[in-house]
Amino acid sequence: MSFREKYARLGERYERIDGPLERFFDTLRRKAARFVSGEVLEVGVGTGFMLPYYSREIELHAIDAVPEMLEVAKKRAEELGLNARFYVMDAERLEFPDESFDTVVSAFVFCTIPNPERAMKELYRVLKPGGRAVFLEHTKSDCRLVNWLLLKPLDLFLGWLIGDNTLRETHRLVEKYFDVEHEESHYSGVVRLMIARKPEKI
Predict the structure, then answer these.
(1) What is the spatial distance between Cα 140 and Cα 147, in angstroms, rounded to a whole number?
(2) pTM of the prediction?
(3) What is the pLDDT of residue 191?
(4) Is residue 202 included in any domain, yes or no?
(5) Where is the Methyltransferase type domain (predicted)?
(6) Residue 23 pLDDT
(7) The domain that contains 98 carries what CATH number?
(8) Are 115 and 52 in contact (CB under 8 A)?
(9) What is the dihedral of CA 58, 63, 67, 72, to 10 degrees?
(10) How far apart are the first and last CA of the chain?
(11) What is the predicted pLDDT for the residue at 165?
């Protein structure tokens, strides 16, 4: 079963199952949202955990590959009064023109994308030169003990439940494509906040 099918089967129940864990990261979501401005693309919006923290001044375009999750996010955006549009779309094949956005956002998404490098290339493509990329991601820990005792068992469970990969080095992929301006490592690197830029054209 693909990750799309797994998330589709969860639908609104995802809030009850994963919500308590996701809310543990609300402080980091709030911090990440401070770096968001202009015309914004959020990939993998899910049920909209980032939405309460966005400024009402941004123009938000949010995508997700799972329509059932997107419907929950739409309702949340309406309740919050956000200027937002939602699209059923795959992060690996974005249907936007080159250099469309001032900011791109990914919050706990790259651990589930089947081909993360292809998705990173797409984010790079649709971001304007000099634009900002905001990543808040689960990543492989800097501590081997944490990887073996926590992340590997969690990887087996979450991989079965929602196709999640807790051992990806998304931070290395960000460094490959963007100029990192700020990075925070939390819980021995299990969670990282990265603020980066797409280089200006010469």
Answers:
(1) 7
(2) 0.82
(3) 86
(4) no
(5) 41-135
(6) 62
(7) 3.40.50.150
(8) no
(9) -30
(10) 45
(11) 60
Mean pLDDT of 163-176: 78
For the chain, the domain total comes to 1
If we measure between CA atoms, which residue out of 103, 157, 160, 164 comes closest to residue 138?
164
For residue 193 the two structure tokens come to: 């906040």
Please name the amino acid found at residue 177.
Answer: Y
Check: CB of residue 188 under 8 Å from CB of residue 144: no
The boundaries of the domain holding residue 175 are 3-197
Instruction: Report if residue 147 sits inside a domain.
Output: yes
Please check the confidence at residue 1 and state whether its pLDDT lies above 50.
no
User: Cβ distance 96 to 102 under 8 Å?
Assistant: no
For the chain, give the secondary structure using H, E and C.
CCHHHHHHHHCCHHHHHHHHHHHCCHHHHHHHHCCCCCEEEEECCCCCCCHHHCCCCCEEEEEECCHHHHHHHHHHHHHHCCCEEEEECCCCCCCCCCCCEEEEEEECCCCCCCCHHHHHHHHHHHEEEEEEEEEEEECCCCCHHHHHHHHHHHHHHHHHHHCCCCCCCHHHHHHHHCEEEEEEEECCCCEEEEEEECCCCC
In contact, 47 and 108? CB cutoff 8 Å: no
For 181, the token pair is: 């301006």
Tokens 């991601």, residue?
137
- CA dist 158 and 79 (Å) reads 30
